[in-house]
Each structure stands twice: as C-alpha cells, then as structure tokens.
Here is the input.
Amino acid sequence: MPRAIVTRPAKEAQLWVADLRALGVDAVALPLITIGPVSDPAALAQAWRTLAQYDAVMFVSGNAVAQFFAQRPAGVANRFADPSSALRAWVTGPASQSALQACGLAPAAIDAPAMDGAQFDSEALWRTVRPRVVPSYRVLIVRGNAPGATGAASADPASQGVGRDWFAQQVLSAGGLVDYVVAYERRAPVWDVAQLALIAQAAGDGSVWIFSSAEAVGYLLTSAPQQDWAQARAVATHARIAQAARQAGFGTVWESRPLLAEVVASIESKT
Here is the structure.
C-alpha cells in the first residue's frame, strides 16, 4: 500500500498516523492548517455567559468543540452539564461527536447525522435537526476563522465555510435565528526544509494525500506555488474537498467518508 500523507491539524494528524500505522499503512503527518486560540476571547466568553438564550449550539469541527470548552470562563456554569437544560449540541460527524462526549456531554444531548448515512456534512445534519427548528429557535454556530477577522459574527460567507453558510440559511429560512462565535483561529503552516522536500517528493512518488479540508488544499498550493500536481493522488473526505483538489491539479482524486477504515479501504481498492 502506498504511503499516506495525513494533512489534518497536528493533534488529529498524529492520531490518524498512529491508527494508520497500526493497520500496516506507512503514514506521515503533514498538517496543512495550524490551529490556535483566538487572539481576542471576549466574544467567546460572552457566548458562554449567554448560552441560556440559545436552543442549540452547532460545532463545525472537533477543534471547535475542544477550543470552545477549553476557554469557558472561570465561574461560568457549563449549561450542557445541567440535566434540566434542553440545550442541544449539533455536530456533522462522529469525530466531533466523540469530542463532545469527551467534554462530558451525554449522547442523548447530541444531534448528528446517522452513522450509516452517505456523508457527514451540514446537509446531513440539517436533515437530522430540521424538525426541531421552529420560528424563533435560536442557534449559535461555533467555528474557526482566519487571523485578523472579528471574534463575533461575520457576514462573510467565505469565512463561515460553504457548508456552514448553507446550514445557517436553512435555519433562517425555517424562521430560526443564527449567531456565530469564533472559538479558534486557523493559520497557514510554516514549513522547514525537510517538510518542503516531503511535499515535492509526495507530489509524484505514488503517495496518497488525505484531505479533510478544502482550505488545507489552498494552503498547500500557497506553500508550494511552483509544484506540479499532475502525478499526485489524493483521497478527499467530501465532494467539495475533492473538487478543490482536482482544481488544484491533482491527477487522481478519490472520495471517501471521513472514517479511518473507509479511507484505508478506498486507498486499497484504488491502488
């Protein structure tokens, strides 16, 4: 089996590399997005203080979950831990669901797409939670942002992500209300000489890049602007990510659900 290049943020990438190696896959981490705390946590602290006004909180990723709970202000109660609270936690996939449970949330308080569904994304989540959203139902979307953007809600669809923007529009169309808060910042990676050499080598040696973010593909292009990707191969965990990889010039791109076993099976079946 070819070498796998795991491009998730560092913490997740290391977990994937360990799991892949346990399955006999040669894997190496090359995080294409660096995750960091927000530079101004005021809006995040305010979101915690006003959780009582929301009916549901949508977390866009496991990083959103981890950073949101890590930055709960001292003295502010965790409303998710109150058994009398009706507050729902919404996520688009099993990794984020596991992150919520690691933060102490009961499975019964979490809404997510069915594990046997075709995809884990905003569209699948909306099909799950649509019956809950009635007029004046209020949703807080916890997301990341690029450095320099505001910590509060942004009207820029590009900063929210295609899926999240679409999801927010569905909530609004159903009569609900949407607010945003930024829980972490996404930054471009800074490469050393060895990592740049790995990028050049993996572009044409048969390695398979594993992409879980279209933004990560963009950072890769910025990091290696002269690189030819015609011989490169990739597995993308969503159709939108696959489209970004193809537009970047990757010669071969497969699609897979973002489950480790299915990514491995995709690589095995195509190589």
Summary: The radius of gyration is 19 Å.
